[in-house]
Specification:
The structure is a single chain. The protein is mainly α. The protein contains 24 helices and no strands. It is globular, with a radius of gyration of 22 Å.
Length: 469
């Protein structure tokens, strides 16, 4: 396909998507709401075909929606007040402190020297670090985007892997592993990510059942460990690093650490601030501060100590790019929920499986619930919009409440595997530039199939063994 034909196709596909949606039967929906669905479909399609960068797409979509009276300008800008969006921005800025002071480089060399005998071992070490922090870090964006992302970037750089031509050396594998493993870890503990406590509350309200921290951890333990073992290996097969023998890098890492000498004052400052932020993230439930507040407090301390200057903040392009496109997408997802489309989809889906044995109905609805996340830019938004309807339908079909709650609960994190906008860490890690959008979506879809193959059969058997049904 010539470049001109490719460009025309990239523009035509979003318009075609909008046209197809408009021609679908839409009885029961106001023309304005259906028009918004057309715009939403065109936007998602444009984010896939990329006729323009994602930020440019969103800058176009917002005034078009306002001019068509699909939403107000106040609605259009509401996504930019979302706390997760600003947590993403803070994570980008915080990671700059790691890079500029070379603390991230020092940490990366230390990791490579200790566990860097193979790329796969490095991938598993990232997943293990995530798992250790997860029970006490209720924000997967803070954990994967704020803590592990800058370290992983520097590990990739140890091997000469940068965004672009050298990304395949090892960076693409490490970044994909970081993201996909974090979703598994997020599904394993009630306190590992924001939507999980919401799931437990909906289970209590909908069926009077108690999905406690211990119950969740026990129920997720066996399928979670299997998934945590399988996902990095699958990513290794799908994103094979060019570097296979990394033993020489261990010697290089030891030499570089010797050359760097002792910690410098800026490094010590970043380490102290980073440790304080991490402790506050771990204690966020007790000190009543959100992860976003804590992250921006950390950025403020970097500025006060002159580790970062204001020009450094302005030059962090990834932060401001993510703010524009991800904030706009959060707004669109919120408006989609207000228009009632997710709830209508859930009711229609439940109608198709009525009369089935509850276990087959649950499998079918979990699959639909998972792939509906293509339309969401937030795990919390997905849970809020769709979990109550799907859960109520399954309880009505006779499913044990704790089984239905756990099934939809774990896939409330795992469903973000497919896209580069499905949850907070996604735009941070994708914004690193190591993984192309095509590869991200392709690998993510295959990982989602692996999750279905692990969590449904193994999960059901394990939940039976521990007495959830």
């Amino acid at each position: 396909m010539s470049e001109s034909h490719s460009a025309r196709w990239r523009w035509a596909a979003p318009l075609l998507a909008a046209g197809v949606v408009w021609l679908l039967p839409h009885t029961g929906f106001a023309p304005r709401n259906w028009g918004f669905l057309c715009l939403f479909a065109a936007t998602i399609c444009a984010l896939i075909t990329r006729p323009l960068p994602a930020g440019s797409v969103m800058v176009i979509v917002i005034p078009v929606g306002v001019l068509l009276r699909l939403f107000t300008i106040q609605d259009a800008l509401s996504g930019y007040s979302n706390v997760t969006v600003w947590l993403i921005v803070a994570a980008f800025l915080f990671s700059r402190g790691f890079v500029q002071t070379r603390l991230g480089e020092r940490i990366a060399y230390s990791i490579v020297r200790k566990v860097g005998r193979s790329p796969l071992r490095l991938g598993y070490s990232i997943a293990l670090a995530d798992l250790v922090m997860a029970p006490m870090t209720p924000s997967n964006t803070a954990r994967a985007g704020g803590v592990l992302f800058p370290i992983t970037v520097n590990v990739a750089r140890v091997f000469g892997s940068e965004p672009g031509p050298t990304a395949g050396r090892i960076g693409a594998f490490l970044m994909t592993t970081l993201y996909q493993a974090d979703l598994v870890v997020s599904a394993m503990f009630l306190t590992a990510t924001a939507p999980n406590p919401l799931v437990a509350e909906f289970v209590r309200q909908g069926a009077g059942a108690k999905l406690s921290w211990t119950t969740w951890a026990m129920a997720a333990s066996v399928p979670g460990v299997v998934a945590l073992a399988a996902v990095p290996y699958l990513v290794y097969r799908l994103c094979p690093p060019d570097v296979t023998d990394t033993t020489a890098a261990q010697t290089l890492a030891a030499d570089r650490l010797g050359e760097m000498g002792p910690l410098t004052r800026p490094e010590r400052l970043v380490l102290v601030i980073f440790s304080a932020v991490l402790v506050m993230w771990l204690a966020s439930e007790w000190i009543a501060l959100s992860a976003t507040t804590i992250a921006w407090l950390g950025v403020a301390m970097l500025l006060l100590t002159r580790v970062l200057e204001w020009k450094d903040i302005l030059e962090e392009k990834g932060a401001w790019d993510a703010l524009i496109w991800f904030g706009g997408l959060v707004m669109l997802s919120t408006q989609l929920d207000k228009a009632g489309f997710p709830q209508a989809f859930a009711r229609a889906a439940a109608g198709y499986v009525e009369g089935w044995p509850w276990w087959w109905a649950l499998v079918a609805l979990v699959v639909l619930y998972t792939y509906a996340h293509y339309a969401f830019a937030s795990l919390v938004a997905h849970v809020t919009a769709m979990f109550p309807a799907f859960f109520a339908a399954m309880v009505g079909f006779g499913a044990p409440p704790l089984v239905a709650g756990m099934a939809f609960g774990v896939f409330s994190s795992l469903n973000a595997a497919m896209t580069h906008y499905g949850t907070g860490p996604a735009p941070i890690i994708f914004g690193g530039g190591y993984v192309t959008q095509g590869r991200w979506w392709r690998v993510g879809f295959l990982v989602s199939l692996l999750h279905l193959a692990i969590w449904l059969p193994i999960g059901f058997l394990w939940w039976k063994a521990i007495g959830l049904w």
